[in-house]
Amino acid sequence: MSLLSPSSPPIGGRYQIVRYVGAGGMQHVYEAQDELFRRSVALKVPKDSSGVRRFQSSAVVSARVNHANVAKTLDYVEDGTGNYLIEEFVDGADLGKVVPDEVPILPPSTVAKIFQQLAKGLAASHHAGVIHRDLKPSNIMVLGGHHFSGIKITDFGIAKMAEAEIGHGIGPRGNTTSKTVIGAIPYMAPESITDFKNASFASDVWAIAAIMYELLSGKQPFGQGLLSVPNILNAVPPPPPQQIAGAQFKSLGEEIMAIILSCFAKNGADRPTADQLCTTLDGLCFSVDAYELGTINHKQSMTVGFITADHGPSVMYHTASFYGGASVSVGDRVWFARHPGKPSPRAFPLVKVPLKP
Length: 357
Known about the structure:
The chain has helices spanning 52-62, 95-102, 108-127, 159-169, 179-184, 190-194, 201-217, 229-233, 250-263, 274-282; strands spanning 15-23, 27-34, 39-46, 73-79, 82-88, 92-94, 140-143, 150-153, 291-299, 304-309, 315-318, 333-339, 346-353.
């Protein structure tokens, strides 16, 4: 099937293609204009025509989930040109692009905020009887990119398609060169590795914990790709990230790490449910910050300096407030949250970010 373009006729007489967004493992994604309700939507098309039946059944299942932290399935269209899933359009980028491309690692307060929202979205899907099956950073949308204005789980609508490809890929004669398979494995629970078709609610809980560990540490908890399989099957607990050792991050970081490890119980029945995760995460104490970018413009000493914010007044920083530590120079780019202070606002937490070419 050829790619659609803005010159293509409206899909189903209603959805006019605006632009091609990109391709996931299982589908092509477009931004389209819903001409009836005058809103932007995400229009998804299966890459493989043999997966159309699974695509349709997945759309029916995903439409049962309705929550602020889940991208809503809005419609399913079949016409002479193909089969199309219509989903809420999220103005942002997927988590796998924001971290590490824009911000290489996230401090505990940001991870707690994301963890809490993911748990709530997951709980809503589980109450509706829906298992995602393929949770990974590329299936989580971040509103506002590096601002982290909100989080939405996406692609419930292709869960059954992912089940078919991944289930085949990790079998004894599986196609382990598949990008979908290789990309999914580091977030899969032991029971998903041994029998992917029997993925459960507990498998989803394991997956979001694996994602949170990666955000907190900058590393996947069990290793990359196929190398992670032995550690996953044996549920070998990953070490605490060294970044949380800093005094300003230690307390919350250790609390989050304890929650993550509880989600890595080898037996799914021993893991917290999504509802229990929500309760535990609601009990954490963390600031809900607005994040921004800036440039180091002055070093007053080895530990204190000032940042020219991209938007707003300059901000004072202390090197102890950098998550994971940082040796910064004038001209370096940083990501931070702004807090009141006199005579200048204070930046906390901070992360040194890559300079854009």
